[in-house]
Automatic annotation (TrEMBL):
It is found in: Cell membrane. It comes from Lasallia pustulata. PANTHER family: CHOLINE TRANSPORTER-LIKE (SLC FAMILY 44) (PTHR12385), PROTEIN PNS1 (PTHR12385:SF4). This is Protein PNS1. Probably involved in transport through the plasma membrane. Its main location: membrane.
Length: 546
């Protein structure tokens, strides 16, 4: 691999030459595990369902690989061949399609009800006769939220590209300042539930940032490596941009549907909601509103998680190809981004849907707890508010654990097309046997990106609060809808940022998975990177049993 340029060079270049690296021999036996020696201790034997990859086997005497196209290039499907291809976890994929169709039907009916009473709901921020439910005023709010989410995510992604060395420092300092400043503002406004959340957020940010400092050099090297690969191979930045645009488009659709459900089905004691009798599906009730909101929220969590994880798997194919193939005579596979995307949409479609479903269920529960916590605080029940806040923390830990497993499982799925549960099991066992789990825990890229996405979510939620405060819509008298609107603004900001930043995390995670499967490739074909890893993180030699 070529020497890394940019911020990492100025950060890591020391006086003097790179240390000489001696590689301990490794022997792979029949793909069932590895046998190597390090400091006279044999690592534990591991048995995996998938053999560590050996790419470039088809090359003969440096010539074109056997079974490839005339230009000597393998395709992604050839480089990462599936022996017995099949559509894994197909039930989850079919269920996702059915849920999407259901969301489309609910959206169509609700939007028809909204369009038939558009004059009643106003044409902008003001002028609505609807004083009992969300209306066009709320749609304008969500437009602002989407714009802020997209702009913040794009700027944050650009900052990662332009200021790689400073990226982690900037993230930590901005999150602390944002948390403290917002908490003070909410205390002044006597919105105590939100103030408590931001106090906890600021304290957590401070603790994290202090603990991060010794691990920043290693994390910066990982980030710089991924950025260098993204600039040279595949279409990583284009994939990120497309993912961000798709997430904003879906966010706009979801926002319109959310408001339309209230417009169409929210009952009014005065009987002045004309949408209740319009269209082919009439009848208003609070139960109908709650049921439809639960469904569209769950559907949106699942759909956006699927978008994010499909993007993740596509980019993982690019980074996996770089790790295993860039040093081979034929180089990177032909059409690697397109090939990885095709696998994500075919053989791995069900597996990605399955993993996304688990996260969607957890996020749905966390959303409900967040709304309940804010409503209890608004009603003055601080004990219940604190209890819900603690429950939300436990759910957040569960979400972190599932997301942690998913990230590495999806990297494996992207390369080998395995079913979700076997991939998750094999990947986790393999990483622990190799010692990569300790290396992963010391890398800050995942936590930093999570903190950046959370900052986007809190910023959007804060914008929603300010919008409701200054426009003071009649439907929100007494803060009736403040908690709901802030929660959904949080959801939009979080999902847009996570999707936009997915390629960065995917690159780092796939590197760890690939290094765990075959660390010899790292030492032999990316020796410059391995030398830099030893410089900033000497324990890497023990962790990968080199």
């Amino acid at each position: 691999m070529a020497a890394h340029g940019g911020a990492a060079d100025s950060y890591y270049n020391k006086a003097g030459a790179q240390p000489q690296i001696s590689y301990a021999p490794q022997a792979y036996g029949n793909g069932t595990g590895y046998q190597g020696q390090h400091q006279d201790q044999a690592p534990p034997e591991a048995k995996y369902q998938q053999a560590p990859p050996n790419y470039g086997q088809n090359y003969q005497n440096g010539g074109a690989p056997v079974g490839t196209s005339g230009d000597g290039k393998q395709t992604f499907a050839q480089a990462f061949k599936i022996d017995k291809p099949k559509w894994n976890d197909l039930w989850a994929g079919i269920l996702l399609i059915l849920v999407f169709c259901g969301f489309t039907a609910v959206s169509g009916i609700s939007l028809y009800g909204y369009s038939s009473t558009k004059g009643f709901n106003g044409g902008g921020i003001y002028g609505s006769s609807n004083n009992f439910s969300l209306n066009t005023n709320t749609i304008v709010l969500f437009v602002f939220v989407l714009c802020v989410a997209f702009a913040f995510s794009w700027l944050y992604f650009t900052m990662a590209r332009a200021f790689t060395k400073q990226f982690i420092w900037i993230t930590g300092i901005l999150n602390i300042a944002f948390g403290v400043g917002t908490a003070i503002f909410y205390f002044i406004e006597k919105f105590y539930s939100a103030a408590i959340v931001f106090v906890l957020f600021a304290i957590f940010s401070i603790i994290c940032f202090v603990s991060w400092i010794p691990r920043i050099p290693f994390s910066v090297l990982m980030l710089q490596t991924c950025m260098d690969v993204a600039k040279t191979y595949g279409h990583v930045f284009l994939a990120s941009a497309i993912g961000g645009i798709v997430s904003v488009a879906y966010g706009a659709w979801f926002s319109l549907t959310l408001v339309a459900i209230y417009v169409k089905y929210e009952p009014n004691s005065g009987g002045s909601n004309p949408a209740c009798s319009s269209g082919s599906v009439g009848g208003c009730s609070s139960a109908k509103v709650i049921g439809l909101l639960v469904f569209v929220t769950f559907a949106s969590y699942w759909i956006t998680e699927w978008i994010k994880n499909t993007l993740y798997s596509t980019v993982a194919g690019v980074y996996g190809s770089w790790y295993f193939c860039s040093g081979k005579p034929g180089g990177m596979p032909k059409g690697v981004t397109r090939g990885a995307f095709r696998r994500s949409m075919t053989y791995s479609f069900g597996s990605i849907s399955f993993g996304s479903l688990i996260v969607a269920l957890i996020n749905m529960l966390r959303q409900a707890v967040s709304i309940a916590q804010q409503q209890e605080a608004q009603s003055g029940n601080m004990f219940a508010s604190i209890a819900f806040c603690v429950l939300g923390c436990f759910i957040g830990i569960l979400d972190w654990a599932v997301q942690f497993i998913n990230r590495y499982a999806f990297s494996y799925i992207a390369l080998y097309g395995k079913a979700y549960l076997p991939a998750a099991k094999d990947t986790w066992r393999m990483m622990k046997d190799r010692g990569i789990d300790a290396l992963v825990n010391d890398c800050l890229i995942g936590p930093v990106l999570t903190m950046g996405s959370t900052a986007s979510a809190f910023l959007c939620s804060f914008l929603a609060f300010l919008y409701l405060k200054f426009t003071d819509p009649a439907y929100n008298s007494g803060g009736k809808f403040t908690a709901v609107i802030m929660a959904y603004s949080f959801l939009i900001g979080l999902q847009v940022a996570q999707i936009f930043l997915t390629p960065i995390g995917s690159g780092v995670d796939t590197f760890f998975v690939a290094a765990a499967w075959d660390p010899e490739v790292l030492m032999r074909e990316h020796s410059d990177l391995y030398g830099r890893l030893i410089q900033v993180y000497p324990k890497v030699q023990q962790m990968i049993h080199a």
